[in-house]
């Protein structure tokens, strides 16, 4: 009885800490089009790094939602959030999911497309 309740409670506790990522800077200024392309490439290849496709899909939906909806998505999917900004998460089976900052927020040196 305690094992199941304990691990679930820990997951719930971690998931409640979701917050907006800290500002970051890309190595060189990029445009919104380039950022979108980088994000699309990451999400297209992410399931090949391991983990469950459904969890990757939930994480993508969470990164594209506001914080309140993101919280609901990760809770519903059973995602255990290690880093409050979603950069490191685990599923209930212990598979690790690492998200780069560029899928979580925009860099401070984002340029307008020409």
For this structure, the CATH topology is Bacteriocin As-48, Chain A
**Strand line-up in the sheet with most strands:** 2-3-4
- Tertiary shape: globular
Taken together, the total number of domains comes to: 1
The radius of gyration computed from the alpha-carbon positions, rounded to a whole number of angstroms, is: 15 Å
**Text of the CATH class:** Mainly Alpha
How many strand segments? Answer: 5
CATH 2nd-level architecture = Up-down Bundle
**Biggest β-sheet description:** 3 strands, antiparallel
What fraction strand?
A: 5-15%
Helices and strands, in order, run as: HEHHHEEEHE
CATH superfamily: Ub domain-containing protein, DC-UbP/UBTD2, N-terminal domain
Percent in helix: 40-55%
Low-confidence stretches: 1-16
Query: For the residues shown, what is the average pLDDT?
Result: 87
Give the termini separation.
60 Å
- Would you tell me the structural class of the helices and strands? mainly alpha
Region (Disordered): 1-31
Domain DC-UbP/UBTD2 N-terminal: 16-113
InterPro entries: DC-UbP/UBTD2_N (IPR032752), DC-UbP/UBTD2_N_sf (IPR038169), UBTD1/2 (IPR039869)
Protein name: DC-UbP/UBTD2 N-terminal domain-containing protein
Q: How would you characterize the overall build of this protein?
A:
- This protein is mostly helical and 114 residues long.
- The protein contains 5 helices and 5 strands, in the order αβαααβββαβ.
- The chain has one domain (2-14, 31-106): Bacteriocin As-48, Chain A.
- It has helices at residues 2-15, 32-45, 53-63, 67-77, 101-104; strands at residues 30-31, 80-81, 88-90, 96-98, 110-111.
- The chain is globular, with a radius of gyration of 15 Å.
- Residues 1-16 have low confidence and may be disordered.
């Amino acid at each position: 009885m305690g094992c199941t309740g304990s691990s679930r409670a820990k997951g719930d506790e971690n998931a409640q800490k979701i917050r907006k990522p800290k500002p970051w800077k890309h190595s060189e200024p990029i445009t919104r089009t380039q950022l979108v392309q980088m994000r699309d490439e990451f999400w297209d290849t992410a399931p090949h790094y391991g983990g469950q496709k459904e969890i990757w899909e939930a994480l993508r939906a969470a990164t594209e939602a506001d914080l309140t909806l993101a919280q609901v998505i990760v809770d519903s999917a059973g995602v255990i959030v290690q880093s409050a900004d979603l950069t490191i998460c685990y599923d209930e089976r212990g598979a690790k999911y690492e998200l780069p900052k560029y899928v979580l927020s925009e860099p401070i040196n984002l340029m307008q497309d020409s």
